[in-house]
Specification:
The chain is mainly β. It folds into 2 domains: about 90 residues, Elongation Factor Tu (Ef-tu), domain 3 (Beta Barrel); about 80 residues, SH3 type barrels (Roll). The protein contains 2 helices and 13 strands; from the N terminus they run βββββαβαβββββββ. The strands form 2 sheets. A 7-stranded mixed β-sheet has the order 11-12-7-8-9-10-13, with no helix packed on it. The chain has a 6-stranded antiparallel β-barrel with strand order 1-2-5-4-3-6. A hairpin with a 2-residue loop joins β4 and β5. It is elongated, with a radius of gyration of 19 Å. It starts with 5 loop residues before the first strand and ends with a strand. Binds ribosomal protein uS19. One of its GO terms (cellular component) is cytoplasm.
């Protein structure tokens, strides 16, 4: 499995209990969807990740707990703390109107109608109500800086992954979501 073919879906926060369960922070939506993958690749990076069949995975409060094949006590489980959970990207299913964050990073963002370039998506951030695109303007822009654009239907009007272009319709007042670079 190559690093490029793996998708980061969670982080291991530590061990839970004497039988070697792991506390996992899930990046999937809903969080319980992480339980749907029968094999996780675990490592510090995708390149160093190794496959571990999932014996059991369940929700426990705000976190997920998981038991892996070959991990049977708290000492073994403790070795997984701060590692990342990956799955092969080809097993991840999305609806037509859903996108993986990894697919959006690097896309150009343009204003609807004018096709004026705003910049490039450098990250996505989750702020409870919705995800937000972090868009970096080009260094040679008239006003270099960063946009924080809500990834919602009213603002993001089109996502073209083939051309790696996201079209946005910024409502009046969105200039407060721009931070100039000093």
């Amino acid at each position: 499995m190559t690093a490029e073919s793996l998708l980061h879906i969670g982080d291991i926060l530590g061990a839970h209990g004497l039988k070697g369960a792991l506390i996992v922070f899930s990046h999937t939506r809903p969080a319980q969807a992480i339980a749907g993958y029968s094999c996780w690749w675990i490592g510090k990076t995708a390149a160093t990740a190794k496959a571990y069949p999932v014996r059991r995975c369940w929700q426990h409060g705000k976190r997920m707990l998981a038991e892996l094949e070959g991990v049977s006590d708290c000492d073994q489980a403790a070795l997984f703390k701060k590692l990342k959970v990956w799955v092969p990207i080809d097993v991840v299913e999305t609806d037509d109107d859903e996108y993986l964050w990894e697919e959006l990073i690097g896309c150009r963002v343009i204003k609807e109608g004018t096709l004026e370039p705003l910049g490039t998506v450098t990250a996505l951030e989750e702020y409870g109500a919705q995800d937000n695109l972090l868009v970096q303007t080009p260094d040679d822009a008239a006003e270099p800086g960063e946009w924080l654009i809500p990834f919602i239907e009213d603002v993001v009007t089109d996502v073209n992954l083939d051309d790696c272009v996201i079209t946005v319709d910024l409502p009046e007042g969105m200039d407060v979501c721009f931070t100039p670079r000093s």
